[in-house]
Amino acid sequence: MKTLEELRAIRDRMQGQVGLRSEDDTHTRVVVGMATCGIASGARPVLTTLSDLVQQKHLTDKITVTQTGCIGLCQYEPIVEVMEPGKPKVTYIKMNAEKAAEILERHLIGGHPVEKYTLASANL
Amino acid sequence: MYRSHVLVCGGTGCTSSGSQRLLEVLKEELQKQGLDKEVSVVQTGCHGLCAMGPIMVVYPDASFYCLVKEEYIPEIVSEHLLKGRPVEKYLYKEAEGKGEDIKALADTDFFRKQKRIALRNCGVINPEVIDEYIGTGGYQALGKVLTEMTPDEVIQVVLDSGLRGRGGAGFPTGLKWKLAKANAADQKYVCCNADEGDPGAFMDRSVLEGDPHAVLEAMAIAGYAIGASQGFIYVRAEYPIAVQRLKIAIAQAREYDLLGKNIFGSGFDFDIDLRLGAGAFVCGEETALMVSIEGNRGEPRVRPPFPALKGLFGKPTILNNVETYANIAQIIVNGAEWFASMGTEKSKGTKVFALGGKINNTGLVEIPMGTTLREIIEEIGGGIPNGKKFKAAQTGGPSGGCIPAEHFDIEIDYDNLLSIGAMMGSGGLIVLDEDACMVDIAKFFLEFTVEESCGKCTPCRVGTKRMWEILDRITKGQGKLEDLDKLEELANYIKQNSLCGLGQTAPNPVLSTMRYFRDEYEAHITEKRCPSGVCKALLSYTIDPAKCTGCTACSRKCPVGAISGTLKNPHEIDQTKCIKCGVCMETCKFGAISKH
Question: How far apart are the C-alpha atoms of B188 and B178, rounded to whole Å?
Fold first, then answer.
């Protein structure tokens, strides 16, 4: 390696990954239900998809992706909760990798919750 | 890509409490539970809380596990890393009396008050992977300096930042560079002093172990600023992990052409080599260090000429401490004003301290200059164990002095410490509680300088020895009041007539304890009594016949058979046989034995 550009390329590639280790209250928290019920209904690919995309798009300085246990709605798993500072929590149900990618694009980046996947629209 | 990173501390403290084995077990367990593609295991440098090692931090949620044992791993992996439920019983809890709240790393009292600049990557990145350093902005400062700044501009930024040498004396770093740049020569050198020798100090070791590239980058910047093409890091051979990580770092930097010829195509050449010190304290002195790099016996030489004019191999040289270098890249990137906005009027930025002695959170802390001693000890340090009272803090190791309780609210900076007869030193901070004997402490540090004096000049070689003998007499109850005057006279003579910093500062622990704790010296001499009950020769253990039940427990435990007496009758200690080990007092269930 010789140039500053190449150095910047390494930094950009690594920033998302090392950024996973930053701590900040201002982060948006994305929590995936990973209890037995969640894992059984396919939460792991949802979690890894969200985590990978956040790193690839260099969003680790704004968004933290983590797991949680069972919240008691096992029949609606996999569940993803999005907690943005100062905003009400949004709960998505029956997630899969594709839906998760859509939520990242439209909600986390675009700022508009994807109503059709939320718990509120499931008419419980 | 990984969704979670598990950071395991690989500093010397945690390594000695078994973190290497933990790394292996963790990797095996992740594989067993099929998580090795989702969770990465990262070995880092020191997190600072060495007393709680081995330390393990799980990101992104920053759960902070401490005192981790191998057998905890399967549970942590299956509960936390798979299902996202941190295993609370193994998490760090604040010191007793502060509630059972479990907090993320940054919210603990230990970390909240800290400001980490020199230590910013320690415990965050893997020091053996250069990409991680680059990922946190590493080598950006070197790039900026080589492509956008002139050497004079670099020096001006360092001058404006107000950065002063972190090795102890506090000489302005920018000024040092400016002087070396002004001297023209065909070859100049940049040296790094990593010969950390003060008892109880491990700041530099932790930086080298946790963030070695920060030092390499800063040395290259210094090389550009003064016009040097070669750097040397003089590091103690007793720091095997630091040496190993430096070797890896240098090899990786060379591979990326961040060291070597024509860095960033700017035409600037710079390379760094390691020199291992054999552990002589005097080699931390700048001229002795350079003599040692040249391959000669480590002894100081007369200054002037100062190293900026004639240093290593007779060429203009700058020598800075590890922690000083660790600040440089951040100053270049964030600007002089940013750095100067922290700290006090004449001491800018932060300082790393190694907290040791009678304190709950033994470890490494970095605080803004101007933080009070009370904040460091009571808040960050978690207070003194067992509810004991604070007596003094010893700073600056064998060259420094003590800060007594009356100065507990002093704002820590270079000048404030000097004004009360202590010094910043390289950053060892040893906390003493009410059980410490100040005469004994002074004797301990003097014994160290007696051992470590290189012997070149008489005041230091002979003078410190005579001072030690006087102190030894005092602690044995054979002192005279005139001895105190003699100590002072000798101390001032040694300070004025020694060639190097070792001798000039060697009497400081004695002078400073005499200044604040003269009553303790006098009690040893006139009353033949050690007020803290430390000096064995002045102690005697006695049995209170009224309280003694004659259980014979003490006489059975006494290793020298000094206790006599029959069952159910009061016992007695034969003072001529007693070795004052204190076992009888620990054994007695009735509080019948006391020491005076």
Answer: 13
Task: Read off the pTM.
Answer: 0.89
Task: Kindly determine whether residue A17 and residue B2, on different chains, have CB atoms separated by under 8 Å.
Answer: yes
The enclosing domain of A90 has a CATH number of: 3.40.30.10
Q: Give the model confidence (pLDDT) of A19-76 as tens digits.
A: 788 766 678 889 998 888 888 999 999 999 999 999 888 888 888 888 887 777 888 8
d(CA B150, CA B188): 17
In one letter, which amino acid is B269? D
Based on the domain organization, do B419 and B327 belong to the same domain? no
Considering its fold, how many domains does chain A have in total? 1
Is B259 a member of any domain? yes
Residue A12, pLDDT > 90, answer: no
Domain membership of residue B467 as a residue range:
438-526
- Chain segment B15-45, per-residue pLDDT in tens: 999 999 999 999 999 999 999 999 999 999 9
What residue has token string 């005579």?
B466
Are B97 and B183 within one domain? no
Same domain, B545 and B571: yes
- Whether residue A84 lies inside any domain: the answer is yes
Residues B199 and B292 in one domain: yes
DSSP B522-572: HHHHHS---TTS--GGG--EEE-TTT-----HHHHH-TT--EE--TTS--E
The DSSP string of A4-25 is HHHHHHHHHHHHHHHGGG---T
Partners of A31 on chain B (C-beta within 8 Å) are: 84
Report the complex ipTM: 0.80
Asked if the Cβ–Cβ distance from A2 to B265 is below 8 Å, we say: yes
- Does residue A5 fall inside a structural domain? no
Cα–Cα distance between B249 and B134 in angstroms, integer?
A: 12
User: A40 lies in a domain?
Assistant: yes
Length of chain B: 596
Within a domain: residue A66? yes
Cβ separation B38–A48 shorter than 8 A? yes
- Å between B411 CA and nearest CA of chain A: 29
Interchain pair B135, A44: CB under 8 A: no
Q: Report pLDDT for A60.
A: 85
Is it the case that residue B103 has pLDDT exceeding 80? no
Whose tokens are 């269930």? That residue is: B589
* Chain A residues touching residue B61 (CB < 8 angstroms): 64, 66
Q: What is the pLDDT of residue B97?
A: 46
Based on the fold, state whether residues B327 and B355 are members of the same structural domain. Answer: no
In terms of CA atoms, which chain A residue is nearest residue B260?
A2
Q: Are residues B319 and B360 in the same domain?
A: no
Domain containing residue A86: 28-122
